[in-house]
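Box S2. Input/output pair 1.
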Amino acid sequence: MLQGRSRKLFWAVLAFGVIAVAILVMQTAWWDTNATVFAQAFVSGLLIGGVYGLVAMGLSLVFGVLDIINFAHGALMTIGIYASYLLFQNYGIDPYLSLLITVPLLFLVGMGVQHFAITPVMSAPVHNQLLLTLGIAIMIENLLLVMFTGTPRSIELSYARGSFDLGFITLDFPLKIFGAVVSMPKLIAFLMALVLAMFLYLLIQRTWLGAAIRASAQQPEGAELVGIDNRRIYTITFGIGAAAAGAAGGLVMPFLFVSPTAGATFNIIAFIVVVLGGMGSIPGAIIGGLIIGLTQEMGQLFVAGSSKLLGVFVVFILVLLFRPQGLFGKQHR
């Protein structure tokens, strides 16, 4: 009964928030003054939200299968950012083409971390696993700091500005949509994040490997009885999660300052997205990512002078209070 009331209260609060925003937007005076700002915040939130969803999908997959909260997820993303940056700076490989290298690289790195570090503590208490992944994250960040120093780096794509003739339409970057400015790197990151998220979803839902992963997550003993090697599946799953983080790192690198802690903020937000969407839910991760992206960018619009993360943490607390299993998660009894 209590859970039912909490669920209704959560949706009531959410509906009230949507209605309040709609009323505010419809006020003519406010809209005339802030229409462009509102459009920019909405578009920016949507674009970065797609990337958040991709990062969170890897984290959610690892938790759903291995039942491990991976604090090293953001650090693995940072490896992907640096790998893409070095390939561009040293060899002139386009950041988006470098995904063909960085994604397999992070897959192998993830498999190595799982095999040599995570597997020995799979049966250990939860706090041991948390401390281990936190230690791995700190180690990776400090290794990157020693190798590349803490100086932020950035790149500029030669084709980020200009016209592109697609035959039926010509696109001039940066695009302007209802007054909002959309840069090419952010648009590409959003579209590719959605494509990769769909690919990962189909991999889990439509392939033999995906069926084995779901079997190991839901009934590990039964999976072993039908010949599935759970340890191998766990290693592959962690590798896929790391590959998703690496892909996200490559996508954000063109519009992000590259530093040893670049993935830390994404790590925090990914945890919030996973909680919002539901632990282990891949569709929930992408929907949650879009919601958090919009909340982050539009929060400052309605609460002037606040941190971008203020609204994000408010949503996080509300979900924990009224719907702890997340929007798409299953309630544990």
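Box S3. Input/output pair 2.
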Amino acid sequence: MLHRLLLLLFSLLASFPLAAQDRPRAALAPLGSLDVTTAQQVILFNRLQDRLSTRYDLVSQSDFASAQDEVFTSLTAEECTEENCIRLIQELLQVEDYFHLQLVRSGQDTQLTLTAVDLDKRQVRSDYCESCDQRELNQRLDTLITSLLPQVENDLQAEMEQDLERQAAESRQQQEEKALQTLRELAQLLQRSAAQAGTAINRYRADDSTNRFTSFFEKQDPKLLYQLGEVYRRGQGLDSNRIEAFRWHSKAAERNHAPSQSMLGYLYRNGIGTAENATQAASWYQRASDQNYALAQFNLGSLYRKGYGVPQNEARARALYRQAAKNGNPQARKVLNWLAEQ
């Protein structure tokens, strides 16, 4: 008998990893049951495995079955007391901790008994569940586990917190995607109908406690920023807001959008949404004029003719008017005709 036990012990040891384990090894006996459905047995046994695995490296069920068979065939009925058999299984499997779950069903009621045996003691916890569904049985089993192994409760709490954090992250991601979809729809609406977009934007920003609106539109095409600036300047679908108008035209102008540069010159020239600044007006008109934007060429010509923000220069003014007229500005043609009559 000793020879057979030693052979099994050596074979099991050979299958163990040589590297030290971060967690202690433990053995989980097959579930014992009476009048309990196979489905419930599987669910509860898997749950017990899952919970114990947070603290232990459980030996495989096949290794446990081999050790159990060897013990049963090597010991007589008188020798194989529960205490002796468990101790030998622990020795063969080289584990200090042994667990066993028993389920007994009587009518609609179920008794759960969890036994834990280590080298020093044997502990048993039982619970009686009346008319319990599977969810309640799961909860009763968790209670038994944590009463035997308080450290598992910490693991379960950590697992619950991780689940909650994961759910919160998923919820935040869903909310973010929903908000982004709404902003995409606002951007599309802005290209179709300024008034409708203004109304929708006003409603969205009233409920938006984040900076999501600004972050989204700052990344959009400058043409769209120009349209947004005009919605605020003209008060299309919302109250006119000169500061917001100046803000969005500035962002588009800084990205070299000629119409926005020209509009920014106009806003500086007239002190709309910012302090009046003739020098800045001339500067932005010049940047748009360099891109052959006719309206900016006309307005810059007027500044040179009047000497506002730039030195007065009639020749420079006429040259800018001619450029504007050539690029299709009708007002420039009228002014050139008027100047010719003087």
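Caption for Box S3: The CA atoms of residues 187 and 224 lie 8 Å apart. Residues 150-192 form the longest helix (43 residues).
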